[in-house]
Specification:
Blueprint (H helix, E strand, L loop, with lengths): L6 E4 L6 H11 L3 E4 H9 L3 H24 L5 E4 L8 H10 L1 E6 L2 H7 L14 H19 L2 E4 L5 H16 L12
Parallel strand pairs: 1-3, 1-4, 2-3, 4-5
Bound molecules: adenosine-5'-triphosphate, (3R,4S,5R)-3,4,5-trihydroxycyclohex-1-ENE-1-carboxylic acid and magnesium ion (MG).
């Protein structure tokens, strides 16, 4: 069987990129990278602080350099930030250097999963639903245009999402071996 390529997870805040990514990497005995966390570690500061001091533009610049660096690694599972697809450079790096999985979820689920969160500066407002709907309208077409696979993550647990991704990624890597249909004799 062909080896599973780099796996890059994209999708909105609360889709489960960090949660699913960690589980997926452990199933594949691979290194797990989370671009948000690596940016924070390199900066010695958390994302809200970076947004406060450098603005969203400063964060996006750091994110672009990080995606370029991390997508050049081999045999990794990489969880990207929810806004990574906004830049064309990021979309290209992701598409060219691995298999891209869009973790889809609904705004309703996002609201639930990010309800008490203080680490996402773009959601520290009173009109979270409106903000998330606007992000969905802008970003969903970009996630779709970048992804090799789209996997629903609403109304199912992380373990089921991971099994689904593994099955579909293996089929993509080796369609003959993992075909669901049998060739006629
Ligand atoms: N499939 C799932 N079912 C139930 N809860 C989930 C699922 N995936 C993630 N969660 C929960 O939702 C919350 C947000 O998940 P997570 O931090 O992995 O999202 P994310 O996509 O990495 O978000 P961000 O883009 O902001 O980094 C966590 O509390 C996590 O436990
Ligand atoms: O959706 C977004 O724009 C963001 C998502 C998070 O992963 C972080 O990258 C940051 O909070 C911005
Ligand atoms: Mg995350």
């Amino acid at each position: 069987m062909q080896q599973v390529p780099n796996l890059f997870l994209i999708g909105p805040m609360g889709a489960g990129k960090s949660t699913i990514g960690r589980l997926l990497a452990s199933e594949l005995s691979r290194e797990f990278l989370d671009s948000d966390h690596v940016i924070e570690a390199r900066c010695g500061a958390d994302i809200p602080w970076i947004f406060d001091v450098e603005g969203e533009a400063g964060f996006r610049q750091r994110e672009m350099h990080m995606i370029d660096e991390l997508t050049r690694r081999e045999d990794v599972v990489l969880a990207t930030g929810g806004g990574a697809v906004l830049r064309e450079e990021n979309r290209r790096a992701l598409r060219e250097r691995g298999t891209v999985v869009y973790l889809f979820t609904t705004v309703e689920q996002q609201l639930r999963r990010t309800a008490r969160d203080r680490s996402r500066p773009l959601l520290q407002c009173d009109n979270r639903e409106q903000v998330l709907n606007a992000m969905y309208a802008r970003r969903d077409p970009l996630y779709r245009a970048t992804a090799d696979l789209i996997v629903r993550t609403d109304r199912r647990g992380p373990r089921s999402v991971v099994n689904d991704i593994l099955r579909r990624v293996r089929r993509l890597a080796d369609p003959l071996q993992h075909s669901d249909t049998r060739a006629a004799p």
